[in-house]
Design a protein that fits this description.
By secondary structure, this protein is mainly beta. It is built from 1 helix and 12 strands. It is globular, with a radius of gyration of 19 Å. InterPro entries: BIM1-like (IPR046936), BIM1-like_dom (IPR046530).
Amino acid sequence: MFRFAVSLVACASLAAAHTVIVYPGWRGNNIHTNGTISSTDAHIKPGSIGINYEGNDTYGFPYGMQWMYPCGGMPTSTNRTKWPISGGAVSIQPGWFPGHSNAQFYINMGYETEPLNYSHAMLPVFSITGPSNTQYNGTFCLPQVPLPANYTPKVGDNATIQVIELAQHGASLYNCADITFAENGDPDIPQVNNTNCFNSSNQDDHIGFQMVYTTTSPAPLAVQVNPIVAVLAPVMLMAASWVTWV
């Protein structure tokens, strides 16, 4: 089973559940500062606002980096990944820490090199179910994530894919992948294969999908599914299950 290799710094964890973007390449490892990392004092500094200037041009994230909008405390990458101009694969590992037997995902895009607006939805919100509420192996891959509506980039344009995982307690985890659009079939686009884009199927790492819908009445028998979600969610879920490489 493929598992993204990353070195973790020993720490007193104050935050549950973290996310890894497997494909395209993410901005960088923002798991290693998951909570307080002091070996002598595990307490949060009084007055902390989630990011602390530690001196020597360094910053601390006492609650963990991935809680920080818009990209989990990571700056824009100078090493961008080429990504198809018509849309492409996004592969995610959601269960690095406990607390993700259920979660909701948003996949958005910010335009240009330094996006200020990440509200351009690439897919409707969807929900996943993990095999347990403890840390688990498991990957899901969406092999063809489309571009936001009414957006037509040019080859060579830069953009950022933002992945938001909404934890069970309501907090959001942020990660980003910086991309440069390339022609479909460009050999410089990293290959999508069975090591970086697959859906885990073993009992201890299987990830399921669920629709997220709205209702117009509190009456149990009067549930009405949002028509956009009703059309797009099944298509997305079928696309997700299309990749069956083992």
